[in-house]
Amino acid sequence: MLSPQTQGNVVEFDTATVESRLRIPLWEEFTRRWLTTVRCRTLTPDGLQTRVRSREFAGISVSEMWGQGHFVERSREHIASAGADELYLIVLLQGEGHVLHAQGVDRLSAGDAQIYDARVPSVFSLLGDFHQVALRVSKDSFADPDGLPSRVPLVIRAAEGGPLVEQVRATTRIAQAALRSPAEPLDSTVRAVHGLFGQVLGNGSGGMEAYWLTARDHIRRNLHDPELDVAQVSRAVGLSTRHLARVFAERESTVAQHILLARLERARSLLLDPAHASCSIADVSRLSGFRSASQFSRSFRRVYGTSARDARRDPAPEVSAALAR
């Protein structure tokens, strides 16, 4: 009998907790409930060794998996018995894999992703140790489900870079946060997932929201770079600077203002972090991406109403209402 561990809204199952002969059938049962119906096989003598964490909300299922190599088949019989019309995103964070389908074989490396329609038969193999994130979304949750075409798995290559890769990475991190911080609001996860699928499959649903989430993620990951500016964010997202400005204008902000406030938030976090107590104000400024300590000091005082040095002694400065909007 399947006995997954539950932590809040997150369910976890580890095959190490059951006998080796039961590992595959129990994992297949768990996967059928939380992701999709598949047939699994492995070449290791101890059976399938894997750990899965899953969460379901608003027509979306998020799963994060770690383990050793195995083979997963989704046959026409599985598709006929499933009933639901769904789409999947699989992001391989560690390891190597292959996707076999009617049109051939696609090889996957760490960082690559695949999007596929649940109605398309396929075989997915994972070689060696792996780590991946899987998202399942019902087509009924889109505004125009008939506009989402059935197709062979679409592979998104991390090595090719570009806006779509950035969007996949942003969506993956948001999905992982939904698993690791169950108390966090889920609106961002839902918007990111719908926006990504809509962009890739031409449905257009949630496109502006997807651009916003991808831009915000790119900014957060590159705050240390003093060259981070509107043009760089525009290239990462795949929009002209004018169209990106419209995305931020919907939130009563600008790209430059968002970068500034994010840098100041990073700086304030460093100032209050005991692990960085030995860092000088100039060091904090540099780590937050400011071109000069004087520019940082002026901006910090304008937004928080106090100096960076005083903020270390007073951990609760208020953000200026003029710039916090």
Reported CATH architecture of the largest domain = Sandwich
Give the termini distance in whole angstroms.
53 Å
Report the count of strand segments: 11
Element order: H for helix, E for strand: EEHEEEEHEEEEEHHHHHHHHHH
Helix content: 40-55%
Number of helices: 12
Average pLDDT, to the nearest integer? 82
Helix/sheet category = alpha+beta
Q: In the residues, how many domains can be counted? A: 2
Describe this structure in words.
The chain has 325 residues and is of the alpha+beta class. It folds into two domains: 201 residues, Jelly Rolls (Sandwich), CATH 2.60.120.10; 101 residues, Arc Repressor Mutant, subunit A, CATH 1.10.10. 41% of the residues lie in helices and 24% in strands. Strands 1, 2, 3, 4, 5, 6, 7, 8, 9, 10 and 11 form an eleven-stranded antiparallel β-sheet that branches. Strand 7 and strand 8 form a beta hairpin. The longest helix is centred in the middle third of the chain and has 18 residues. The protein is elongated and about 65 Å long. The termini are far apart. The C terminus is likely disordered.
Short summary of the structure?
This protein is of the alpha+beta class and 325 residues long.
Task: Show the helix and strand layout.
Layout: E1 5-7, E2 10-14, H1 20-34, E3 39-41, E4 50-57, E5 60-67, E6 70-74, H2 76-82, E7 86-101, E8 104-109, E9 113-117, E10 122-138, E11 154-156, H3 163-180, H4 187-201, H5 207-221, H6 230-237, H7 241-249, H8 255-272, H9 281-287, H10 293-304, H11 308-313, H12 321-324
Antiparallel strand pairs: 1-2, 2-4, 3-6, 4-5, 5-10, 6-10, 7-8, 7-9, 7-10, 9-11
